[in-house]
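quick q for whoever's on today - can somebody do inverse folding on this one?? i tried earlier but teh output was garbage lol. tokens:
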């Protein structure tokens, strides 16, 4: 297996609607940005691509990926489409990594997009809800805000998590995004603002939930030989992991906690796991990525995290899944300031899904782009300010999540040679 490097990336500004741009134009904008950052790279050097988009319904176009491939000038080279719900972008990134690691390609482009504004919000929520079991859950009102409200109610019951702790996630992420020019929803909020916004599914309010978006992102991955030719600031992919779980929460068995390298069985003597309060797939993905990367304690060896905060509650749950704190301590973790920009491990320093937006096929790739820029130390170059630059960042983690934890990816990136 060969070493794989991220050499460049680009994104569009995420927005509620972009009526003047179709999906091909948006991807081209992100791709051109990435290409301009590695001027030695030509189209002839690119061996192929992986396309990432969640739903054909939003574009009303089947095989949209090949239309982008053509628009980018990459035909007749290999390409394939990845679809994994909310984890589509993260899975696309790992698929491109596999193409390089296997030796099939020396340079691969991972691109993703979504044009969610093409339908009404209620219809968009219906399309997203089709990623639940349409034979069982969906007919009885299976919208995702309901699922996540149920899960966090159990988290609150089991561990004492509070709505104020959830609101603190929203305050943090929207506040970070004030200095991110690509974000859709930067805002200076208070705990009171979050709790006073309209209730969506108790206890989740409007400001506990991410927004639907239009946007695109592109990441260029390369072999070590090509990376050395293209940039003096490559970022190495040192660990990848993917976990899964049953789509229906009721089908998930209980068992022993999957332990990370810094944990022991006695840490969780009386925990019913995974219950509906935790994501077994996320813990599995983290364990695989840490083992591959040689990470013994993520709290000490990870400098920042870009994770899938579709809900404030899921950010808290994910702190626990990836081992930033023990199960049950996620609420206290954010309340302590450990996830702040100047905290022990900054989480979503660029705003996350809550503030940047969630054009599903682009989201996981957005995380990869921001992680790349953090590790290159080039946030100021791309954002126009360095307020979100994590100081001395040498290693970062990106996390992409689908459904109620049915597909989850974790990838660990490290500053390169």
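ok took a stab at it. sequence:
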């Amino acid at each position: 297996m060969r070493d794989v490097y991220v050499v460049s990336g680009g994104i569009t500004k995420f927005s509620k609607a972009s009526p003047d741009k179709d999906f091909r134009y948006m991807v081209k904008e992100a791709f051109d940005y990435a290409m301009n950052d590695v001027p030695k790279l030509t189209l002839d050097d690119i061996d192929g691509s992986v396309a990432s988009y969640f739903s054909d319904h939003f574009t009303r176009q089947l095989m949209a990926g090949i239309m982008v491939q053509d628009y980018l000038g990459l035909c007749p080279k290999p390409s394939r489409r990845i679809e994994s719900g909310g984890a589509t972008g993260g899975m696309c990134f790992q698929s491109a990594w596999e193409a390089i690691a296997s030796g099939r390609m020396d340079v691969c482009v991972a691109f993703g997009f979504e044009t969610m504004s093409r339908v009404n919000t209620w219809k968009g929520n219906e399309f997203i809800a089709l990623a639940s079991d349409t034979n069982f859950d969906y007919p009885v009102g299976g919208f995702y805000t309901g699922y996540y409200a149920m899960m966090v109610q159990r988290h609150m019951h089991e561990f004492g998590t509070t709505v104020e702790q959830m609101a603190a996630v929203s305050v943090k992420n929207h506040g970070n995004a004030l200095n991110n020019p690509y974000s859709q929803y930067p805002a200076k909020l208070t705990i009171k603002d979050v709790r006073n916004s309209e209730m969506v599914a108790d206890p989740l309010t409007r400001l506990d939930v991410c927004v639907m978006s239009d946007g695109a992102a592109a990441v260029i991955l390369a072999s070590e030989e090509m990376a050395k030719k293209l940039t003096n600031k490559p970022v190495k992919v040192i660990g990848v992991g993917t976990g899964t779980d049953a789509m229906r929460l009721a089908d998930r068995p209980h068992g022993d906690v999957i332990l990370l390298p810094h944990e022991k069985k006695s840490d969780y003597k009386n925990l019913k796991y995974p219950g509906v309060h935790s994501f077994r797939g996320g813990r599995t993905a983290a364990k695989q990525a840490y083992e591959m990367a040689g990470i013994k304690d993520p709290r000490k060896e990870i400098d920042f995290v870009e994770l899938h905060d579709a809900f404030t509650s899921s950010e808290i749950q994910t702190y626990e899944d990836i081992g930033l704190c023990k199960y049950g301590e996620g609420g206290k973790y954010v309340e302590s300031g450990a996830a702040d920009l100047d905290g022990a491990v900054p989480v979503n320093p660029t705003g996350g899904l809550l503030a940047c937006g969630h054009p599903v096929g682009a989201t996981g790739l957005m995380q990869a782009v921001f992680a790349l820029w953090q590790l290159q130390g080039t946030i100021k170059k791309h954002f126009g300010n360095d307020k979100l630059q994590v100081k001395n960042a040498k290693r970062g983690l990106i996390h992409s999540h689908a459904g109620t934890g049915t597909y989850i990816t974790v990838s660990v990136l490290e500053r390169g040679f």
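fwiw The chain has a mean pLDDT of 96. also The domain at 4-119 is CATH 3.40.47.10 (Peroxisomal Thiolase; Chain A, domain 1). so keep that in mind when u check it
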